[in-house]
Amino acid sequence: GDSVTQMEGPVTLSEEAFLTINCTYTATGYPSLFWYVQYPGEGLQLLLKATKADDKGSNKGFEATYRKETTSFHLEKGSVQVSDSAVYFCALSDHRDDKIIFGKGTRLHILP
Amino acid sequence: DVKVTQSSRYLVKRTGEKVFLECVQDMDHENMFWYRQDPGLGLRLIYFSYDVKMKEKGDIPEGYSVSREKKERFSLILESASTNQTSMYLCASSLGWTGGLYEQYFGPGTRLTVT
């Protein structure tokens, strides 16, 4: 079945460092891909999404490009801030229904 | 702004009690979801509803039931709470019949402890 695999955390970086969180997926067809973020004490919220191959989603300085050839959707940010500390979830929708399949999440700690 | 609210942020119940978790959304969304979130396991779908009085089992429905009598409200019921149901419970909603093209909106979560 469809699945999402993302790097295990926690990931700890210093402020202003470059961030990459890896995400790969397995799906038949052409899924839509998402990154959600969960700040401490809150529910998940959509960070960015891409609906077809080579699309780039971007928001709040974060970017991810839908790479069909490598079945990947890695999250990147050029300069992280302490306020980016959160749990990040990669997810996909295979369009067979309205459900979304989530990865297990990667906890990010940014040190000042 | 879409708002998904959950009835409690923190709940402590005893083993064997019947527990109700309530979720309300204000965006007229067709779909509503209940997940549980556990360290190392991520989000797991318990139940999903795509319309009033309609429900579909998710990946881990055992020990849970749901009720959707009105479009805006989706309740999760633990018939007889057990300690292995101690978890964070997240409710979400989304537009229906889009093939998952649009995002799910999440509530803040209910942290349930069963003692």
Verbal overview:
The complex is a heterodimer of chains A (112) and B (115). In chain A, the strands form 3 sheets. In chain A, strands 2, 5, 6, 10, 11 and 12 form a 6-stranded mixed beta sheet that branches. A 4-stranded antiparallel beta sheet of chain A has the order 3-9-8-7, with no helix packed on it. A two-stranded antiparallel sheet of chain A has the order 1-4. Chain A has strands spanning 3-6, 11-14, 19-21, 23-26, 32-38, 44-50, 56-59, 62-65, 75-77, 86-93, 101-102, 106-111. Chain A is mostly beta strands and 112 residues long. In chain A, strand 7 (56-59) and strand 8 form a beta hairpin. In chain B, the strands form 2 sheets. In chain B, strands 2, 4, 5, 6, 9, 10 and 11 form a 7-stranded mixed beta sheet that branches. In chain B, strand 7 and strand 8 form a beta hairpin. The termini of chain B are far apart. Chain B has strands spanning 4-6, 10-13, 19-25, 31-38, 42-51, 54-57, 64-70, 73-78, 87-94, 105-106, 110-114. The mean pLDDT of chain B is 93. The A-B interface holds A 32, 34, 41-46, 49, 51, 89, 93-100, 102-105 and B 4, 31, 33, 40-43, 45, 48, 50, 58, 90, 92, 94-101, 103-109.
What is the compact description of this entry?
By secondary structure, chain A is mainly beta.
Descriptors:
heterodimer, A: 112 residues, mainly beta, 6-stranded mixed sheet, 4-stranded antiparallel sheet, 0% helix, globular, B: 115 residues, 7-stranded mixed sheet
Structural class by helix and strand composition of chain B: mainly beta
End-to-end Cα distance of chain B? 37 Å
| N-to-C SSE string of chain A, H for helix and E for strand | EEEEEEEEEEEE
Report the order of strands and helices of chain B: EEEEEEEEEEE
| Shape type of chain A | globular
Chain pair sharing the greatest interface: A-B, 23 and 28 residues
Number of helices of chain A: 0
Radius of gyration of chain A, whole Å: 13 Å
- In total, the number of strands of chain A is 12
Largest sheet of chain B: 7 strands, mixed
Strand content of chain B: over 45%
Strand content of chain A: over 45%
Major pleated sheet of chain A: 6 strands, mixed
Low-pLDDT stretches of chain B are none
Average pLDDT number of chain A: 94
Q: Percent helix among the residues of chain B?
A: under 10%
Radius of gyration of chain B: 13 Å
**Which percent range fits the helix content of chain A?**
under 10%
